[in-house]
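Hi team,

Filling in the usual template for the complex we talked about on Friday. All components are listed, including any nucleic acid strands or ligand strings, so the model treats them as one assembly.

SUBMITTER: L.P.
PURPOSE: interface mapping
COMPONENTS: two
RESIDUES: 546
SEQUENCES:
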Amino acid sequence: MSEQLKESLSAVMDDEADAFELRRVLDEAKADEDLCERWHRMHLLRDFMRGDIDNYAPQLRQKIWDGLNKHEEDEEVAGDPLQVVPGSSAKVRSPWLGRITGTAVAATVALLIVVNGGFFESDQQSEINSGFANTQPAPSAATPVPVMYSIATAADRQRMNGFFVSHYQSRGMNMPGVEFAKMASFSAHKQTQMPTVRDPDVQPGAQNEETSVIE
Amino acid sequence: MSLRYCSIFSLWLCLASTSLVTNQVWANEAEKLLMRMDKAFVELSYDGVFTYFSGGDLTSLRVVHKQIDGVQRERLVHLNGAPREIIRHGGNVDCIVMPGDDLAALEQSIPAGPFTRAFVRQFDRLSDTYSVEQFGEGRVANRMATRIVVRPLDKHRYGYRLWLDQNTALLLRSELIDHAGNRLEIFQFTHLIIGDAVRDEDLEASEHSGSMVNHLRLEPLQNGLPVKQTAMDWNLGWVPPGFEMATADIRRKPASVENVSSLMYSDGLATFSVFIEPMPKHGAASMVSMNGATVAITRRVDSGQVFHLATLVGEIPEATGQQIIRSIRRN
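RESULT (copied from the run log):
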């Protein structure tokens, strides 16, 4: 086994692998018993350290592989802007959403690998709910607290758009031209190309903390 | 020896204080210029083409403005994309768009109710939160301009660079700048006629076959009316220094029976709005959205067992927006 592969495996374990790296490890593991063995050992070791030694995952590789493929199929469905996602009639996915979920593939699957319980415990649990990261769990009777989910639906974006325009309007008809332009140019392209939306928990890159460098 | 140092020191002090005084004078001059700029927008006749860069997009528009018998007349023509014009005649606004235009669709999604026309620009309030200085000269749209730099004094607002026409104080170019020095928005005239050469007929809409007209009515401006904060269910526990409430009202969304409370704050230049509505039945996305310098943040607000959804939209840094939206309280 190459050093590079070991590093890749380690990255997968640490939830740091990208989609390509993950696929590579999965692919290699198909033919490489050493790799499979090592992977199992690493998991066993970690589970042991966490006191979860009872958990054991047969056909780990195949399950992750299936989960990955299923996720991509879901994504293709979601990529069709007119396709209504089953079970959520209010949500219409648009293509840009695909890009966001695309970057989330690795994280999602890697998360499935490292999450204790559930996946590792169950021989009977054959299907990975790989879409869990972007579906909105229905509020159950036990928890009446409304859900705040992290991926915007069409309804969310429309509401946000309305508030953008409303803000521009309120901001001032007193500055002729500019605010109108702002509002109008906003609506001109934002229906097709939305403002960048991101999960507020994910912090953007380190910002320059220097105050005012205006000349 | 020590005497010599002493005299050098006092000379330095003297020089320093002189330059302080000069700065003060300059600042006052610059503030006066800003006030002239505001008047120029309303009182001057102008016909020009400007570009507006925001959120990675560049838009070109023509603006024709004239004040006839005390009535503001204005025409805004989009020069890119689908034909689209906005004609203002006093408080009446006509949006002339092609069928299926997003703008028409968007108008309907805007919370109904009066346009709250806040006078958000109050330059006399700037001195606590910004420093305003003249900074040399420039040339924009083939006209000589005076440059003004408006620097924020803390991290809760953005800065501006402004180019004002040397003869008329009309704004020729403006840049909105974040704390790292990035230009978030640029507005700039590329061609401009000022004065009597602006023709009345250019205020009329041009003919586009098949276009439709959306009519809006702007409510008369209620200037100087105090905002009744007590009338609102909500208030903000924290706002950055210098921000004061400009408007507060309750609107109704056309598509539903739910009311949306809206609060608007301004520091004289920057503004932010907070919208609070009952939590949608199926929850909502917790998200941060950017359009140029405008940030929008949604967050759930819990008051007892009742949940609301708050959305903040404003030309302020995201961190500041987060801090504000976390401070929302129910009265």
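MY TAKE: Chain B has three helices and 20 strands. The first helix of chain B runs from residue 2 to 43.

Thanks, L.
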